[in-house]
Fold:
Amino acid sequence: MFADVIVDIQHEKLDKIFQYRIPEAMEGKLEPGMEVLVPFGKGNRQIRGYVTGISETCDYDLSKVKEIIEIPERGMEIEAKLVALAAWMKKNYGGTMIQALKTVLPIKQKENAKVKKRLRLLLDEETGGRQLHYYQEKKQKARARLMAALLEDHVLEYELVTKKLNVTAPVIRALEEQGVLAVETERVFRTPMKQTEQQAQKITYTPEQRSVIGRFRQDYEEGIRRTYLIHGVTGSGKTEVYMEMIRTVVEQGKQAIVLIPEIALTYQTVMRFYRRFGDRVSIMNSRLSAGERYDQMMRAKAGQVDVMIGPRSALFTPFPDLGLIVIDEEHEPTYKSEQTPRYHARETAIQRAKMENASVVLGSATPSMEAMYRARQGEYVLLEMKNRSRMQRMAEVYTVDMREELKNGNRSILSVKLRELMEDRLKKGEQIMLFLNRRGYSGFISCRECGHVVKCPHCDVSLSVHRDGKMRCHYCGYEQPKITVCPECGSRYIGEFRAGTQQIEEIVRGTFPQSRVLRMDMDTTRQKDAHEKILSAFANEEADVLVGTQMIVKGHDFPNVTLVGVLAADMSLYTDDYRSGERTFQLLTQAAGRAGRGERPGEAVIQTYDPGHYAIETAAAQDYEAFYEEEIRYRELMGYPPAEQLLAVFVSGEDEALLEKGCHYLREYILRVIRSLSGERNTGTEKTGVQTEPSAASVIGPASPGIDKIKDVYRRVIYIKAERYELLVGIKDRVEQYIEINSGFDRMRIQFDFNPM
Structure:
């Protein structure tokens, strides 16, 4: 038996795995992630390594393969746990072990470590006095100045000596060589936290909050570790509940990770945690420098941090004794990685928690279908909070049919109802948020007169417009020419919806010249701290209207906002994505939830061309249960997650003909694998690309992934559906082996994505 071992895992050029022979005495004892001592290099020096995999075959000359020396008794180190997690990610999401390791391990940065230097006097008072007298006699002024200062204060900051006393480095070095002083260095970690005085606020919990906290605390103190789903309406005080749960964990000497979906949430969220836990809180996000990110990981590893807050990457914080992982707004698609391995933070967090005997808390006002499905199956503990923390009424929601607006002569993007309410709020000095739903826009065609959306006759998704003048379905490949007249009502008011936040900002300024308008989108938040500046300005009521994309509707709490307008609710409703209904419901519900969080009641206006769609109706009623029941029926009927599992095999390459050929062979091989795994004879309909006979799994494609070519690289996707996730993992393993042994795939890039988002 042989073990794959990674060594020097914190080195930035982490790209090599070595094979070692497993001694007979260790067989059956080694597992991926375990620490081992191995001989390394020509001198066979003993170094620490971590097992990444175990195999029966060896890829190298057997005569040159060395043997593992021993398994250290000190147990699993932090790195070992993360290596084991990386091995799990490779198995479940595909890619190489190196890719998985680079995802989970903090790689050393090239930046020099920040150090603090001090000078310490090594002489007693009497000897020091004589030395000072000697320097004065010899007219060595700099040495005398330094000596006098050291006699007054035996420890001096290096920077103080060089800048205030004007003593140069050679002088310091000379006194060090004479045994007069010692230069001490201390590693100083960069911290992104701005140290501001924060007053802790006294919190009175609602009965619902106390019930949720109590259930978690009881389980935790009894040693029960579970995954909990908190379904709490917007404004129900989920963050306060998280903090109380974290306090329970921290009091037991353990640490907690809090994942948030957007950088935009950092400012408000961190301040609330900082008030509770002080400087034992740190943050992780993409706006930090490489040195700052690395330092936060090392601070956590050194036990200087109890709570780490950040997006997906914060999940891999190397805490020595992890007790809890919180995933706020767990429904957010940003928790799914777009790079290989394409892991989902929710599943990966649950796996890490299992490895470290920790709990997981998922929270959302609009839980993902997957999370709620598993909660109802009993895999997660469902905890509900149906009322706002200060018992405020939920916002009153108005649905405006934009078809009627057009019939009445209003061609503006602002409906009459929304304009009237905006005028009222501006007079009262209250604030407004306008949200443009830009998510998932891919050129769908809709009629502004009757609301008809051109959909695929074979799939319940919209056709996407392509530059060649055709409309295509990205799930079955159906296509037809682009239409210019509505097939439902004959109107020529049919086309692609095009509007941007900048355009809306100009319309608002033109309609309400007295208003102060802020815009928050990708263009206005490019600079460091831009999110915080915009949100702080709006929170301080320096603006009346905040216009933005989905980043403004998630998690923010502005007490003076009493009106939310959702423009073009349909933009995410009719995309070529089976999750479009879920996305729309979540965004609309979250948007409506921003209104009326203070003392004054709130209102929301949803503008749509399809007010009768179940996602819009249930969002307007803020009825998650009704939406879930409708949506799960659709998923079960169509065989989409969470009812079934889906694997997308993305194939890309610069040679289109080679790509088509490669996809053909991949599809044929996948069908063979399915037949062998299912034990069924399958006669799939090759022409349509869809299997009709019952099988353990079905194959769709190769199809277009939305955009056929990017930067001269052609793209295709093959979808595989199955009831069991394990079956898809097995298919993925076989396909990976097939690709590895066939050199024809060397010029193609192949990625696996389970349950793509």
About this structure: The two ends are 39 Å apart (CA to CA). Residues 323 and 358 are 4 Å apart (CA to CA).
